[in-house]
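Supplementary Note 3. Input sequence used for the single-chain structure prediction.
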Amino acid sequence: MTLQLSVLDQSPLLQGHNEQDALAQTIALAKHVDQLGYNVFG
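The predicted structure, written as discrete structure tokens, is reproduced below.
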């Protein structure tokens, strides 16, 4: 049995940042966990 882990695709808007920053941070996180071998769930 294989356990699959995922990272939620939420883009928190941090104080002092804008929507573009939040999206850029989410994209960076997605790329990073992809490199770590996480799967994408649709």
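The mean pLDDT is 82. The radius of gyration is 12 Å.
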